Amino acid sequence: MRVRLRQIGDELRKEKEFFWHCGIFNFTLQTKEKQMEFLSYLFFRLLVWFIGILPFRAVYWFSDFTAFILYAVAGYRKKVVMDNLKSSFPEKPEEELRKIARATYRNLADVTLEGIKVFSMNTAEILKRYRAVNPEVLSLPEYKEKSIITVSAHLCNWEWGAFTLPEHTARKVVAFYKPLSNKSIDSYLRKNRARGNTILLSIEKTSEIVKHRNNKSVWVLIADQNPSNPHKSVWVNFFGRPTAFLRGPELMGKKYNLPVFFVEIRRIKRGNYEYELIPVEDHPANLQKGELTKKFANILEQSIRKNPENWLWTHRRWKHKIEDIEKEKKS
User: Fold this and answer.
1) Staple 154 to which of 17, 222, 284, 312, CB 3.0 to 4.6 Å?
2) Is residue 144 domain-shared with residue 286, that is, in the same domain?
3) Are residues 240 and 205 located together in one domain of the fold?
4) CB 284 within 8 A of CB 292
5) Is 319 among the domain residues?
C-alpha cells in the first residue's frame, strides 16, 4: 500500500509540473488550435492518472462498461465489424459472428485501457503479465551478426510488447510508430515507450533505419493495418480475398536480407499474455516479389482464426479494392 501511495504521489507531482510547463496561466492567450491541443492533452494525462490508480479488477469493470457502450449503445463501427466477419467467416452462423463481435469490443476496450494503465506500471509488473515463450531465438548463433526483423499485428495487447521485448534481449530494439497529430501527447508517449534499449522511429522516417542496419538490433513493425496508399502496397490473398499490405517489412527484409519473425501474441487470461517468435523467412533476398508478405499474411491469418475476437475487426481493412486499382491504372 505504501508503495502504491508513493506512486500516486509521484504522479501528482508530475501533474503539477505538467500544468506549470504547459503554461496553463497563459491559456487564454493561446490560439484556438493550441487550446484544443492543450485540453486534449490535459484530458489524456488525467485519464492516465485515473486509470493508473485503479486496481486491475476495477480497470476491467470499466472496460466491460466501455465495451457495452461501444457495441450496444453507440454501435461504434458495428457495421464494419459485422461486414468484415461475414466476409472472412462465411461458414459461421449469424449468432456465432455476433458473439465474436461482442468479444471483439471487449478486446478493444481491454487493450485500450491496458495501453493507458501501462504508464503507471513498472517493468517487473509488466513482465509478470507479458511472458516471452522463446526469447532465446534472438540469441541463436546464426543470427549473431545480423539485425532481426519482427513483424507483429493488432492482436491482443501489442502495446505491452514494446515495454517487454527490450527485457528479453541484449540487442537494441528499434520500434516503428505512427506519430500523433497532437504533439504533446505524442511526446509523452514517445518518452514513456522508449524504455531501456528501445529506440522509436517514425514510420515517416524509415530511411533512418540505415543507421541501425549494422547494430545487430531487433526491428519491430506492426504490419497488418490498411495501407494509406494502395498503389504502393503488396497485394496478397488474405481471408479469401485480395488484400493490400504495407510493403515496409518486405522492402527492408529483401534489401538487407535480414531474418523475419512473426510475433504471435496470445491472451492466457484477462490481463495476462504471452508472445512467441515464429520464423517467417531467414533469407528474404532469395524470395520472389510479394512472397515474404504472402508468408506473413498466411501466418497472421492462421493466428487470427484461432481466436478471431482478439483482432481489431473495427478497422476498415478491406477499404481498398484491387479492381479499383486496376481500373485506375488503365484510365
Assistant:
1) 312
2) yes
3) yes
4) yes
5) no
The grid cell for 55 is 486496481
Assess whether 144 and 287 both reside in one domain: yes
Q: Are residues 95 and 217 in the same domain?
A: no
Domain that holds residue 108: 2-119
Specify if 242 maps to a domain: yes
Q: Would you say 226 and 317 are in contact if contact means Cβ atoms under 8 Å apart?
A: yes
Whether residues 179 and 103 share a domain: the answer is no
Buried b (16+ CB within 10 A) or exposed e, 27-55: eeeeeeeeeebbeebbebbeebbebbeee
Q: At 238, is the secondary structure helix, strand, or coil?
A: strand
Task: Give tens-digit pLDDT for 122-167.
Answer: 999 999 999 999 999 999 999 988 999 999 999 999 989 888 998 9
Classified as helix, coil or strand, 174 is strand
- In 188-233, beta strands by DSSP E: 198-202, 218-222
Instruction: Give SS3 for 145.
Output: coil
What SS3 state is found at 49? helix
**What total of structural domains would you count in the chain?**
2
Structural contact between residues 168 and 237, judged by C-beta atoms closer than 8 angstroms: no
Q: What's the pTM value of the predicted model, to 2 decimals?
A: 0.88
